[in-house]
Amino acid sequence: MKSIPVLTLPAVLLLSACTGLPEGIDPVSGLEKERYLGTWYEIARLDHSFEEGLSRVTADYRLNDDGTIKVVNRGYDSEDGEWSEAEGRARFADDDRGHLEVSFFGPFYSSYVIFELDTEAYQFAYVSGYNRDYLWFLSRTPEVTENELERFRNRAREEGFDLDDLIIVDHSPLPQ
């Protein structure tokens, strides 16, 4: 058996903590994986370095042959005038709950927690990371009503998210 170098162990332990659930937030149950596949538009998010400055953000989920999910996140960087794309893979942490583990960097995974879902039509989802620093409002359409956005804000506040830095993602057409 190979041993893990001592200096690497703290990093491994820290990264493994990234696949947990935020305290007090429960993933949805009864998730139908096949219905969740397809394209989602990012309506709102708490900003973070890997999406900083991106607009027109989408996430596309497709089933891989091995049962994992191919994840392609795409957004437009107006400062550079070009599209940015990241490809990763996801696996379900629980069979029928909205808790996935997503990786864009080799063997390192982070939580993707669906804590609200339109279970009738699968038209919107509220997603958190492993803590309350990560939050997304996803929709099957690039625009939602103000009432839908306010419902998201209210639920996020109830769950303890700080929305001071919430970004509403621009999905307007690019100028020709």
Walk me through the structure.
There is one protein chain. The chain has 176 residues and is mostly beta strands. The N terminus is likely disordered. It contains 3 helices and 9 strands, in the order ααββββββββαβ. The protein is 15% helix and 39% strand. A hairpin with a 6-residue loop joins strand 7 and strand 8. It has an 8-stranded antiparallel barrel with strand order 1-2-3-4-5-6-7-8.
How many helix segments?
Answer: 3
Averaged pLDDT: 89
SSE topology string: HHEEEEEEEEHE
Beta strand count:
9
- How large a portion of the residues is in β-strands, by DSSP E? 35-45%
Q: Count structural domains.
A: 1
Q: SS-based structural class?
A: mainly beta
CATH class: Mainly Beta
Shape: globular
First-residue to last-residue Cα separation: 59 Å
* Share of residues in helices: 10-25%
Query: Can you tell me the CATH architecture?
Result: Beta Barrel
What's the CATH topology label?
Lipocalin
> Quick one: CATH superfamily?
Calycin beta-barrel core domain
Unreliable spans are: 1-16
Radius of gyration: 17 Å
Spatially, the strands of the biggest sheet line up as 1-2-3-4-5-6-7-8
